[in-house]
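INFO batch 0412 | record 1 of 1 | parsing
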Amino acid sequence: MRKYMTPEQQKIWDESIKIAKGPPDMPFREEIDILSEYRDKVRDEIFYDKSILHPGTASLSWTLCSKAHHAAALASKVVDCARLRHGMEEISVHTTKQIMRTYVSVFVSTAEDSHHKKVRMETIFSFLGALQGMASISHILIQDTLALIGSKDTCSDYKIDESGIDRAHLEYQVEMNNLKDMLTSAHRRGLLDLYKILAPTLHLAVARTKTCVLKMTATRKMALGHHLPGAPKAPDDS
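INFO prediction complete | emitting tokens
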């Protein structure tokens, strides 16, 4: 897209990209950059490649690339949250990052398949499964923390509803499984039915995952910050 910009527009664009990329030590920075490239390539195809015969397919590819990029950025936030520690008994930063890396690899593969127009149902389900796994890790993190400090081991005006946290995670997983069932049913009816619901389903899946993950990480940070102000941040040992 840069070749269509004026020098001033290119400068503004480059500065915006630099800000959007985040800090240099951001977890999965390299993978997120790769996902940005895939997303931008597909977007350029949609807007500037007049030879595309099926713009709807290109639009779906952009949706997948965009959602994969959002998911990887969310995975980075989970690792950042894991760096806040209360004790050595919690799941380690190294373990968290290694697990999350497997999910980020799925997100990159999803974008790659989308860019090369090789998306299959397996691609979609792997992507959704990685989203669910990411949410589960964020749930484990808050569970470990609460097990150490106790949901009531804080000031009298502060209390974490552990059952509410568990219920939110369970409801999320049930909804995600229902989305998978919807896609499977649509696929059995035919590709046309599948394409009608695929993009909205992906939007919903990523939105629900973001809500769940941010709820878990925010609650954990609140618990650590309230119980132990200035909670130490563990180094990234991987």
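INFO post-check: The chain has a mean pLDDT of 82.
INFO record closed
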